[in-house]
């Protein structure tokens, strides 16, 4: 399966390292090999990608980007072949509830970071892939989206909420 359209989101946070990683030569090489034609980047309170013309010229990838949208970016989520997002609970739930394939990226700079536990749990259960910034390109190279399990909202929502509550209380 080609990853023609990829949606990258940081949610309501600032996670410039993720945006920089996605626009790096290493990740763009992987995206080009995977058939990416368009990146839609929601950069939140951070900074946008600046070298758009160069990326289009060298990699053949168009970039559309914005900070926030007033309405939920449902179209961006539903048209994406892959979503790459920060490993916050809201982003994880958006990916799962919309039945999309995803790679979630841990922000190691956060204090009392529970993202690692959440990301690892969702990966262990086969719903999403996860990575840190340094391993993003490798995770993308190895990812087989057809092996991800669909997320059953009705059965899994209670266990997900229970897991989140236990994680926050720990």
Please name the CATH topology: Rossmann fold
Helix content: 40-55%
Cα(first) to Cα(last) distance is 39 Å
| Overall form | globular
**In what range is the share of β-strand residues?**
15-25%
SS element count, helices = 8
Mean pLDDT: 90
Tell me what the CATH architecture is: 3-Layer(aba) Sandwich
**Main beta-sheet annotation:** 6 strands, parallel
Give the uncertain stretches in residue-range form: none
Radius of gyration: 15 Å
What structural class do the secondary elements suggest?
alpha/beta
The CATH superfamily name is Glycogen Phosphorylase B
How many domains is the backbone divided into? 1
User: What letter string, H or E per element, gives the SSE order?
Assistant: EHHEHEHEHEHEHH
By CATH reckoning, the class would read Alpha Beta
Structure in words:
The longest helix has 17 residues, at 153-169. The model has no long low-confidence stretch (mean pLDDT 90). It is globular, with a radius of gyration of 15 Å. The chain has a 6-stranded parallel beta sheet with strand order 3-2-1-4-5-6, sandwiched between helices. The N and C termini lie far apart (39 Å). By secondary structure, the chain is an alpha/beta fold. It contains 8 helices and 6 strands; from the N terminus they run E-H-H-E-H-E-H-E-H-E-H-E-H-H. It has a single domain (5-169), classed as Rossmann fold (3-Layer(aba) Sandwich). The chain has helices at 16-22, 25-33, 52-59, 74-79, 89-97, 115-124, 136-142, 153-169, and strands at 5-9, 38-42, 62-66, 82-86, 102-105, 129-131. Helices cover 43% and strands 16% of the residues.
């Amino acid at each position: 399966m080609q990853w023609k359209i990829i949606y990258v989101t940081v949610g309501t946070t600032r996670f410039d390292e993720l945006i920089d990683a996605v626009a790096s030569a290493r990740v763009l090489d992987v995206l080009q090999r995977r058939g990416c034609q368009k990146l839609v980047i929601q950069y939140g309170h951070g900074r946008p990608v600046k070298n758009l013309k160069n990326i289009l010229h060298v990699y053949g990838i168009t970039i559309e980007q914005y900070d926030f949208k007033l309405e939920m970016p449902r179209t961006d989520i539903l048209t994406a072949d892959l979503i790459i997002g920060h490993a916050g609970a809201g982003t994880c739930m958006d990916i799962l509830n919309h039945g999309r394939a995803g790679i979630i990226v841990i922000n190691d700079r956060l204090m009392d970071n529970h993202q690692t536990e959440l990301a690892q749990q969702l990966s262990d259960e086969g719903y999403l892939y996860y990575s840190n910034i340094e391993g993003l390109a490798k995770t993308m190279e190895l990812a087989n989206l057809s092996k991800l399990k669909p997320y059953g909202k009705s059965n899994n929502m209670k266990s997900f909420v229970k897991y989140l509550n236990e994680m926050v209380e720990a």
